[in-house]
Structures are given as C-alpha cells and as structure tokens.
Amino acid sequence: QGQLVESGGGLVQAGGSLRLSCAHRRRDLVRYAMGWFRQTPGKDREFVAGINWSGGEASYLDSVKGRFTISRDSDKRMVYLQMDNLKPEDTAVYYCASGSSNTFGRMAPPDRTDFESWGQGTQVTVSS
Length: 128
Hints:
By secondary structure, the protein is mainly β. It contains no helices and eleven strands. The strands form two sheets. Strands 2, 4, 5, 6, 9, 10 and 11 form a seven-stranded mixed beta sheet that branches. Strands 1-3-8-7 form a four-stranded antiparallel beta sheet, with no helix packed on it.
C-alpha cells in the first residue's frame, strides 16, 4: 500500500459537507508540508490547499477560500480537508500530497510547486 492513503470521499448534495482524511505512513513527513490537490477528467491536477509542517500556516485555491479548511494532527500522522458549502464544480478526485525537501521545517505556507508525491485519490461528487 502507498505512503499516502486518502478516505472520506463520497456523494453529497450542493451545500453539504465532507471531511477528507489522509494517513501518511512515513514518520518524517510530520516535518514536511502536506496538501490536497484535485483533478477532473481532461484537466490538469489542481492545487486546493496546503499546510506547513507545524500546522500554523495554510494556503488555498481562491475558489475554496472560506469553504475549505486544511488541518493536520502530527501525533496521528493525519491530514484533513474539511469541505463545507460544497458546489457541483468541486466534483473531482481529491489527492493527498506530501511536500518536497524544501518544505522541511519551513514556516511559510506551501504553494502548488512544493509537492512531490501523491496518494491514490478519493472521489468527491457534488450533485446540484
């Protein structure tokens, strides 16, 4: 099984909520940024949210700001994406991602270029 394992996807009506979870097996990833991406058929993978190693700084795609919240629990080696007020355009496969070496111990929030490994993904479908 992979280093990053996502769960929590599903089918929800517009306006509803889902919480995605990502379990990471590598102990050292607690010192790296973590993030979430999403992808729909025929489109490039899109950065959704990222969080620094301490959990104190986060960054978001403009279209999800105020609706999505990324968090992490390093003791449990878990990363979460709370998604509220979901819209049909949020429908995608969501991927957990781990940060590259330049995010080790870095306080600044990560951006889309700071990730190097992804999980298998979990499907989120929002009906109108």
